[in-house]
Structure to design on (606 residues):
């Protein structure tokens, strides 16, 4: 199901002027705080009436100001997972979960209480009241509640922002399962590069109310010109790989990416499973000759395709690595000393890989964080 | 302990008071919730006027309120005549009039308690209910109303207590007819005006205190139960 958004909306001095289309399973609406992400999802949900514009899911027009059409929120069947959960305090977890089901048309219902409870691992919580749940549990229940309303589209507004790192790691695998096991398209709002790189199929980058770029996750993450907006410190390339084998003796897993082989701390998945990895620019060193006598395991041949200097001594380098884009961050001094220029063949030394399961075996354990290798 | 035994007339006054207060509370409840909601949530022309009107019985001397009721709802009053002619409803010098006087006097207290609790409701929860498919009426019934229940209970008890104790407006509007409009306060007043009425006044005073304490305890209990249901305690 495709989502088409074309909006112009002013609130005080802020103007949202956004236009994009997405057919992805998980579209990330990515940008800094104040870039208009929440305003945009609130318009899609029907909580804000836009000054001008059109929002369409599949063949259902949600709002079209030109034709004077505005579907109220309760008739949109757009699930919304809020940043703060917003569970009903007077209802038990089970009653919360089933709330939207009363109102969903019988014919359009998908997913049973059992399957959703199972998907989110909340069977033990059903009788409790929201006040007694942890932050992570609340968010899982909120996701389940939105799912059980049988939405045509699921909106998630920074569902992890209010959680600490541990709780984030607890929820992320469930969002991945949601993406992979249900057929509901998701519009996911986030300002965290890590989440977006891990979850999104399509990225819409929002900057000061305007769409700065939209496209495949790997493409957007690999664009040097977008670094100021995607966040320079965390910037990195997203690559697709497969598990090629396990090195049991060392506790390592061998991954095959387009540009070569990578060794990472063990991932408990079967050979052949697709894994999405992210390599941060600051974790990549460059060498003109293949380094020897070095502890780093992952050394990939690559070609420089683009150089872009920001403020100060730092230069971002984009590399072609067997067709995939790889990013490296070096100093201007190193660029001069090494004579870096587009077309130059060299070696990328990867110090650390953040990895993530792409498709999931049911009941499998979650992905992992950065592993230093 | 003979002086503690209630006479039949006194029992009648107690029963009548309870009936009047109960009807006053129940009849004003829907309107009370509606007005509280209107004042808490809506912006409209004449809002402050409505607010003043609701609070007027709190500020006016009760006798004045009673006299206004007499003018408006009396047999020759504009509304009273209409109701009598077309619906056969008579307020003047009937127990229904006492209930009306109690309801009017308790109305500002009821609305105030409910308005505060409606203003305290997290509207984002109502938005969430909307995105889950609930239309505005269902949102009110399934989210707003359960959340404001402690305030609604408090408002009901205040209205009941006010109607139980209402004196000035009642005696002005519907007089003091034993068996029809003689409620606890008017009965006590009469006892204090006749020689040898002291023990009767004391008996009814004790009953009055007992009913008030019972109402207060009941409201505490209900409000606490409602609050624990919505996870506040």
């Amino acid at each position: 199901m495709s989502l088409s958004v074309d909006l112009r909306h002013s609130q005080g001095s802020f103007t949202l002027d956004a236009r994009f289309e997405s057919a992805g399973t998980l579209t990330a609406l990515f940008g800094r705080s104040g870039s208009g992400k929440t305003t945009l999802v609130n318009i899609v949900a029907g909580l804000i009436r836009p000054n001008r514009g059109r929002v369409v899911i599949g063949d259902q027009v949600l709002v079209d100001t030109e034709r004077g059409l505005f579907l109220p929120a309760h008739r949109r069947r757009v699930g919304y997972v809020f940043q703060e959960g917003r569970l009903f305090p007077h209802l038990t977890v089970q009653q919360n979960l089933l709330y939207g089901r009363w109102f969903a048309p019988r014919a359009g219902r998908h997913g049973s209480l059992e399957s959703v409870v199972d998907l989110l691992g909340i069977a033990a919580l059903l009788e409790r009241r929201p006040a007694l749940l942890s932050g992570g549990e609340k968010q899982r229940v909120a996701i389940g509640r939105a799912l059980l309303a049988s939405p045509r589209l699921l909106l998630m507004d920074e569902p992890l922002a209010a959680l600490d790192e541990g709780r984030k790691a607890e929820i992320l695998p469930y969002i991945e399962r949601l993406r992979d096991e249900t057929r509901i398209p998701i519009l996911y709002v986030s300002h965290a590069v890590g989440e977006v790189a891990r979850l999104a199929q399509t990225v819409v980058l929002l900057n000061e109310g305007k769409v700065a770029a939209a496209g495949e996750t790997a493409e957007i993450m690999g664009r040097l010109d977008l670094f100021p907006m995607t966040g320079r410190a965390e910037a990195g390339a997203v690559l697709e790989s497969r598990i090629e084998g396990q090195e049991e003796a060392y506790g390592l897993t061998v991954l095959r990416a387009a540009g070569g082989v990578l060794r990472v701390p063990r991932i408990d998945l079967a050979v052949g499973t697709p894994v999405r990895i992210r390599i941060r620019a600051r974790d990549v060193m460059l060498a003109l000759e293949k380094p020897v006598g070095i502890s780093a395991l992952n050394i990939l041949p690559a070609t420089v395709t683009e150089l872009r200097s920001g403020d100060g001594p730092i230069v971002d380098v984009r590399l072609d690595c067997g067709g995939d884009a790889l990013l490296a961050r070096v100093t201007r001094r190193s660029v001069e000393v090494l004579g870096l220029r587009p077309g130059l063949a060299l070696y990328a030394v990867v110090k650390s890989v953040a990895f993530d399961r792409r498709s999931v075996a049911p009941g499998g354990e979650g992905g992992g964080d950065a592993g230093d290798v | 302990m003979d002086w503690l035994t209630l006479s039949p007339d006194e029992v009648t006054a107690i029963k009548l008071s309870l009936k009047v207060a109960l009807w006053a509370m129940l009849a004003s409840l829907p309107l009370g919730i509606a007005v509280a909601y209107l004042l808490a949530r809506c912006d409209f022309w004449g809002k402050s006027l409505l607010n003043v009107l609701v609070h007027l019985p709190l500020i006016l001397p009760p006798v004045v309120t009673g006299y206004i009721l007499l003018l408006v709802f009396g047999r020759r009053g504009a509304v009273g005549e209409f109701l009598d002619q077309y619906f056969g409803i008579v307020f003047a010098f009937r127990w229904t009039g006492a209930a009306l006087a109690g309801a009017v006097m308790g109305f500002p207290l009821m609305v105030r308690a409910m308005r505060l609790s409606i203003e305290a409701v997290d509207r984002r929860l109502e938005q969430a209910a909307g995105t889950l498919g609930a239309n505005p009426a269902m949102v009110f019934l399934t989210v707003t109303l359960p959340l404001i229940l402690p305030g609604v209970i408090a408002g009901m008890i205040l209205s009941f207590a006010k109607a139980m104790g209402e004196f000035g407006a009642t005696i002005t509007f519907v007089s003091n007819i034993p068996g029809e409009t003689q409620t606890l306060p008017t009965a006590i007043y009469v006892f204090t005006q006749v020689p040898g009425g002291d023990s009767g006044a004391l008996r009814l005073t004790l009953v009055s205190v007992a009913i008030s304490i019972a109402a207060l305890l009941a409201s505490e209990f209900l409000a606490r139960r409602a609050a624990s249901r919505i996870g506040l305690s």
The two ends of chain A are 40 Å apart (CA to CA). Chain A has two domains: 3-221, 236-372. Confidence is low (pLDDT under 50) at residues 358-371 of chain A. The domain at 236-372 of chain A is CATH 2.40.50.100 (OB fold (Dihydrolipoamide Acetyltransferase, E2P)).
